[in-house]
Structures are given as structure tokens and as C-alpha cells.
Amino acid sequence: MKNSLLVALATTALFTSCHFKNDYEQVFKDPNLYCNTVHELNTVVMGNNFGPIVASRNYLYAAIAGYEVIAGGYPDKFNSLSGQLHGLKSMPKPPAGAKINYELASVLAFCKLGEAVTFPEGSMRKFVDSLKQLAKDHGMPSDMLAASASYADSIGAAVMAWSKTDNYSQTRGATEYMVNDSPGRWVPTPPAYSPAMEPHWREIRFVVVDSVREFIPHPPYPFNVTDKNAPYYQEVKKIQNKGDSLTPEETWIADFWDDNPFKLNVSGHLMFGTKKFSPAGHWMGIVGIAAQKSGSDFATTVAAYARTSIALFDAFIECWNIKFTYNTLRPETAINKYFDPNWRPHLQTPPFPEYTCGHCTISASAAEALTKDFGDNFSYTDTTELEFGIKSRSFTSFRAAASETERSRYYGGIHYEYSTVVSHKMGSQIGELVADRLKLKKIERISPDPRLPVLSFYRYSSRAAGAAAQRLDTDTRRYLHPAQQRPAPEYGHFRPTTDLSP
Length: 502
Hints:
By secondary structure, this protein is mostly helical. The protein is built from 16 helices and 6 strands.
């Protein structure tokens, strides 16, 4: 499967080259070419067993590199992200008089960053070679091909240099998560009992969000497995009962949004892994579906991928900050230890703390970015899981899909219901902030749809110091501790009860 798109691309090029010489502009303005390239990176990420958090970093820098080529080539239509993203300086300009095909250069820059940010260079080399051959077969002049590759390299080098300042390399040598047997504290889960994944990810640099203190959900319910009236106890029993009574529809929803990049299957002494696209990879696939259905041109498609990748990346950082602040026990562990040692969730529990939910957070964030680019009430059918043998599902909007993702983690037995609700709302607000702050097109699209209800946590923003904090909405107030059901403090005076800084 890894090279299926590559083979198809090369075969098409060879078959059509004799009949359509000198139509390279038409070939490279096809947005499906960029979508196929993103899918190729998805496949590479999956094949190399990278976790969902690290995968989001690959998509981020690749998508930004691809976008910066478009912004440099069409400055009358698109703004550079330099100055809009933390630490990103000015990008190289196209050399005066150079004949550059910016669509080809955009794809090449995407590939350069996609394979080099995390992987050893060469993981997409065959795909890149096929792109260059495609250009030759369709009559692209050699000087244009060379100039396009050169500009892609210059943008790629600039984005690569920026990527190296995000604290990723420093976290590779950070201390591991310390496991202890404190009541309610996360411990590794079956069947692999893997160590905590990326416990220092909150130390990675945001690209749009200003600080981990900008989005503060309320603390998780206090651990309590003895008092039947305690909120935590009730959540444990609720998810246990739901796991024992899933309907076929609920099972389908859980499986559809599983997005486990590496599931360990155990049968006696036999163990083997099965792979899927990660949560971020799933949403990058949805971008391509939306671009195709909307008839977006190449440049608009590239911009949509960039905005969504940024929303995914920043949402992961904030979610991981909360996860490794509270280090909450997974439902599977609580149920096995205190209620039923034989209970298993429908989905395999991933190796990191329960609160907050990563998939719920990043899905809601991505949905806001996509709504910004394609509008609300954008109906579509999500076909991303077909290659993994899971039937497609249809949605009336991106927000509806994100809401279903929220339920899927509860159905799967890996997140408490209240946690999915809080995480979804946090992700929605992160996505709104990303969508609103990023100015990609010279004239940004203004969505006519109303904003989501006020969220059940406070926003802290240095850019909006002195403004009134958002009030808790009645739909989620039942998930708050009594001490938190009070008028929200002003931004300038807000102090979280727990230090959430890295």
C-alpha cells in the first residue's frame, strides 16, 4: 500500500506522456496531486510506527513548507505565515526572473519537510523522483524544473531551520514518566504495558497559541471508587456498563474513529501489530475530501491543509499539558482493579493518561479550522477508513464529525464521558483561535455561522488582557466542581488552582 499511489502516478504519467505533451501546467494545478502527496506522507508516517503526537509535527512542518511556496509565488493572493507563527522569520522570496512552477515547488517542499523533520532523508525519495519524471513527461522545461526544485529547497531549508527551534530535540533526552502506585494515578495498560508516550510534549513550542495557560479546563473528578454518589465512581460504572452493552452503531462509531497507529494483537503466545492512520492523519485525509468536494483550486487546498495542521498541532500540545498535569488513571485500570478484573474496553487503551482526551481535543480543533475554510453545514462522506476495511460514514458538517469523535472514545471504553465533553469544548476553542488568528488569504473568508456556545473553561490570553473571561455554559456545568461554579475572574487576575505551566 505504501507505494500504491506512487505506482499509479508513474503509470498514468507513462501512459499519457505521448498524448499530452506540454500540458504540465494543467497537470500540476490539479489539487488532487497535493492530496495524494499528503496521503503518501500519511502512509510513510504509519509505516514508521510514529505515535499520533509526533505525527502531527510531521504534518505541521510539511504543510507549512508547502503553503509558504504558494504564498511566495502568489503574494497578491496569500499572506506568508512569517510573523503569524511563533518564531517563524521571513521566508525566501522567489529569485527575480526565475521560471518557477509554484505548484510543483509546493509539493516538493512538502515532501522535503515531511521526510526530514522526523525521518531520515529518503523516505519519500521515490515519490519525489516520480513527481519530477511526471513534470518531464508532460513537457516542463528543464530550467523551470530546476528552478522549481531550487525554490522548494530554499523554502524547505528555512522551515527546517525553524523546526529545529521548537524544543523537540531537547525533549528526546528528557526524563521518563515515573510510575508509582498512588491511587488514581496513571499506570501502563494491557496488552503492551507501554511506557507513557511523550510526557514532555507540553514543552514543545506552540505555533499560534500563546501559552499552555491560555486554555484551562476544570480539574478531573477526584478519584473515588468507594462512594457510589461520587462523580468519579458514577463515571466508572457508566463506562463499564456502556462497554457491556454497545449497539452495532456505537461499535461502528468507535471502530471508525479508533485511529490506533499501532494495535498490538495478542492470541496466546502469538503477538502481531496492525496499523492505521493516526487521529491527525485521519483529519488530514478529511481535508482532501473537503477540497475535492468543494472544487477548491490547488492553492486553496494547500492553505486548508496548513490551517488544519496548525490546529491539530497546537491542540495536541495543550491536551498533553493537561494529561501530564493530572496523570489520571484509565477506565480499564480502575475497573480491573476495583470492580471486574476481566473487563476490557472495546478499543485498545493508548499509553498515556486519561484526562483530557486527545482525539476529542484535536478533532474539535480541526473541525473549526475546516469550517473556517469550507463553511459550516458542509456535508461529506468520510472514506478515509475504507483501506482499513471500515465502512465510510457521512456527516452534515465538520463539527458533527468532531461531536461523533467525542462519543466514540466513550463508546470505545477508553475515556470517561465527562472527559470527552470537556476535551471537545477545549478543542473547539483552540480551533476557533487558530482559525481567527491565521490570515492566509489576502481577503479571508468570513463564516456566517454562529459560534459555538461559551465553553466550560477559562481562556487566558495576553493579547486580550483585561477582557471578561467566558462564563460556563449550563450544558456542561454539571461537570464542574461546586467551587468552580462562580463568576469567572477577569483575565488579568486569573490564577489556576494548579500550575499548568511546563
